[in-house]
Design brief:
Two copies of one chain form a homodimer. With about 325 residues, chain A is of the alpha/beta class. Chain A is built from ten helices and 13 strands. Chain A has a nine-stranded mixed β-sheet, with helices on both faces. Chains A and B meet through helix 7, strand 13, helix 8, helix 9 and helix 10 of A and helix 7, strand 13, helix 8, helix 9 and helix 10 of B.
Chain lengths: ~325, ~325
């Protein structure tokens, strides 16, 4: 097994409108956000995805410059890249999909390159569970850690296939509403317990501006969100979150609950940068200092003098 | 100045309906919840409020048994106690007021007893800002800490008077939506900064199930909510929160930001008990052990090994 993080996910053109601006045909896609976020840890990252012949060469350069291996990205001659157009409401938690053109994604069969069949971490980014399953089946040996990200669209329309994938992963990363929908539970604890019965030993529930939680059988951890002064574009925040989490774990190369906690803190910090600019812009030029400062901020945000906790106060 | 916590607030009969049950004419009111919560710290608490002749003697006993001084509670002969009837939606964050009978509250002029005119902490619970102002004006010397709790109804209808009160307090405790409404800001940080310009040096923003935040000029602290398995009745959770905060501070008798952080943790724990039962039921019989366990749980919920945070990981 090699110290590599393999990411399966979309690469896309996005057109995005938020109350704070708009951008047309910019670089997007789950694998893109994941890769850029994870690359901050200077690890070996490979992407399995598909693009059309129209995919901008500058975008390829931008990604490969971050030492992300794109051998597994298939370019379809004459094909057009997956396109998504969305509009966010004044309440940025609500968005309408204006247009989706699957294009080359429609018949996508992932092809994992030979030298990427034994990654230590496999991250199945948010896309069709059939694609996730196919990539998983191409592994030469089971990765030490398999992380799955998904969303309501796949829960609603491909539940059976999704269940097969969920059953085979170690970590399911999902947002709060989707966790409740997936499990028909009323509380996040209930949902997390239920999901663990489906297979994953670890469950991450993302709550957007309200932080994220990590569960296993014995423990619960809560990571606060960094309180950003203004959100310009929430697109990709979830991808960035799970990508940073995976990137951190690959860097320290240990996958215990204690280490995952810190992974959540890094994920929270990196996702907070992502939403402050349109598309992947913020992720393209983050300094170590900037990230480290935000990590320390998050650490201080929930720290208090635990010696003040005293049975005799009551 | 004496080591006393004076609470100004309502005492009430509540009829409550939630998706998990209903209760008629039970003990309620901000001052009641505040007093019961704060009494867990075994401090001197006095309440200034008003009740009708119909107020159940058992309720009086229940409160005074907790060493809460009710000298400042006026009983109006022939009057009826303030009554509130509300119904919660499936989403417990939304409630409809079905009926409000102000009764004795309508012409209430608070009368602070002589021996309660020099409390170290004055907590102005959620009620008419004119009443809050009148109580504040009856202090013989300025309390070392004045805490104000308010809500949208007073913001919408009595803004001018409310502003006068806000200007004179040290801590404003308010929920997230109300903070944004009060300040016309888009983020909680923006709101907290704005509120500090109005007078309060400290701002507490309650986010319900998403925890609470404490701000002053230099610092921000986030206290997670305790993840309860089921919520039966959210009534009084905010009162319980601010009451516990005040109770903790009175007990340790120091009012720094560092101490307030821990106050928020105790507040979070105690409020979580409150919502697990109808009305004040849970608050009537909490053991030290139960509270202490939840405090430790909250401590662990956000704790991680900060030695794992390392500049060279990036």
């Amino acid at each position: 097994m090699s110290n590599k993080l393999l990411v399966v996910g979309t690469m896309a053109y996005d057109s995005i409108e938020t109350p704070y601006g708009k951008a047309e045909n910019i670089l997007g896609g789950a694998a893109t956000y994941i890769g850029l976020a994870a690359s901050n840890f200077r690890i070996n990252i490979g992407i399995v995805s598909v693009i059309g012949e129209d995919f901008n060469l500058e975008y390829i350069e931008l990604i490969t410059k971050r030492k992300i291996d794109l051998t597994g990205v298939e370019e379809i001659k004459g094909g057009k890249t997956f396109f998504w157009k969305g509009r966010y409401h004044e309440n940025l938690n609500i968005r309408d999909t204006i247009e989706t053109k699957l294009n080359v994604l429609e018949n996508f069969v992932p092809k994992v390159p030979l030298n990427w069949k034994t990654p230590k971490i496999l991250l199945l980014g948010n896309l069709h569970p059939e694609v996730q399953l196919s990539a998983l089946n191409q592994m030469n040996e089971r990765p030490e850690l398999i992380i799955l990200d998904s969303m309501n669209f796949w829960i609603d329309n491909f539940r059976e296939t999704l269940d097969k994938v969920i059953n085979r992963v170690d970590v399911l990363c999902i947002n709060d509403e989707e966790a409740l929908e997936l499990t028909k539970q009323k509380t996040l604890i209930g949902a997390a317990n239920e999901i663990q019965k489906y297979g994953p030993k670890y469950v991450i529930i993302k709550k957007g501006e309200h932080g994220a939680m990590l569960f296993n059988k014995e423990n619960i951890f809560f990571a606060p969100a960094f309180p950003v002064k203004s959100i310009k574009d929430p697109t990709g925040a979830g991808d960035c979150f799970v990508g940073s989490f995976a990137g951190y774990l690959m860097k320290i190369n240990k996958f215990s609950f204690e280490k995952m906690k810190v992974g959540l803190i890094y994920a929270s910090a990196l996702a907070s940068f992502s939403v402050e600019e349109f598309g992947t812009q913020a992720l393209q030029s983050l300094s170590k200092n900037k990230i480290h400062n935000r990590i320390n901020y998050l650490k201080d945000l929930t720290s208090f003098d635990s010696k003040l906790i005293n049975f005799d106060i009551l």
